[in-house]
Amino acid sequence: MKLSDLGERGIIGKMGKILDIGDDAACIKLGHESLILSTDTIHGPTHIPPGMTPKQIGKFIVTVNLSDLAAMGAKPLAFLLSYGGPDKEFSEFMQLIKAADSQCRKFGINLAGGDTKEMKELTLTGCAVGTAKKPVLRSGAVPGDIIAVTGELGTAGACFELLRKGIKPGSSLLKAALEPEPRINEGIFLAEYATSMTDISDSLAVSLYSIAKQSRVGMEIDIDKIPLSRFAPGNVVNHALYSGGDYQLLFTVPEKTFFRIKDSLNAKIIGKTTRSGGIRATRGSREFRIREMGYEHFDRNR
Q1: What does residue 109 show for φ and ψ, rounded to 5 degrees?
Q2: pLDDT in tens, the chain (302 residues)
Q3: I want to staple 288 with a disulfide (CB 3.0 to 4.6 A). Which of 24, 76, 118, 283 is the partner?
Q4: Does domain 16-132 fall into CATH 3.30.1330.10?
Q5: How far apart are CA 12 and CA 25, in angstroms?
Q6: Could you give the residue range(s) of every CATH 3.90.650.10 domain in the chain?
Q7: Counting beta carbons within 10 angstroms of the beta carbon of residue 207, is it exposed (0 to 12), middle (13 to 18) or buried (19 or more)?
Q8: C-alpha distances in angstroms, 290 versus 46, 85, 88, 225, 237?
């Protein structure tokens, strides 16, 4: 059996039988707080579209790692960056490093160190460290909770589809897709209220299924309530459901609590949790099937 026979999520599922994994980041209890640790890698051929600048790449590697801290409700503490790539102009390398440092400082942390290695293709690995008094896991949703998302969805998927077709996206769409922001402030705020949470990095569908399975709840989703990108052309619903890269937060929260906090948060209700298993969805008056599908490494069909 090869890794591609399982796919990334299948691999993680197998690893979960021997390791305590399954949330957006690792959680280690330290006294009255928890240390939250995340690592993520981006690789030139799979993550970096042609035309993405060194500044955008440097910002992006920080964002994808901090997004995992946001999903746990953690406050960032430090960031480490390992750089692998071919020989290039030092000035171009420093543009990437300075952009990563600038993105760290935006969230009150330092680029504390890392490593450099010569490799054939650009490969960056980040490690984000944070703390949380009350980490939010994927396993805490209960029947009757509101299901909600921050921001808008479908931006990245629509942009990358245009780029694959050789079509230049509009400037607003391109910036939103190539320079996403981690929802750190929203995550810290929601840590006081959310029963479960995850970031939307691989797709909304994948994120919904991950919470439903780990919390052992069902879900009812209203497709028409999913907040869609203002900038994206084409089948935005499909991109919102099945494309990754938006880095918004999906969370559950008691209904009374949501309406108490909604004015402090840019979030929209898309459904509710139920006792019965599985995910049911409607679009208008019709049933709508949400497949467990999204971006996945080691996918033989990609």
Answers
A1: -130, 170
A2: 765 665 655 655 564 554 455 688 999 999 999 999 999 999 988 788 888 999 999 999 999 999 999 999 999 999 999 999 999 999 999 999 999 999 999 999 999 999 999 999 999 999 999 999 999 999 999 999 999 999 999 999 999 899 989 898 999 999 999 999 999 999 999 999 999 999 999 899 999 999 999 999 999 999 999 999 998 888 899 999 999 899 999 999 999 999 999 999 999 999 999 998 789 999 998 999 999 875 544 344 55
A3: 283
A4: yes
A5: 13
A6: 146-288
A7: buried
A8: 25, 39, 44, 14, 11
For residue 275 the two structure tokens come to 């006792």
| Superfamily for the 146-288 domain | PurM-like C-terminal domain (3.90.650.10)
- Token pair for 221: 């989703």
Q: Which residue has the tokens 């949380």?
A: 132
Distance CA 60, CA 48 (A): 10
- End-to-end Cα, the chain, rounded Å: 18
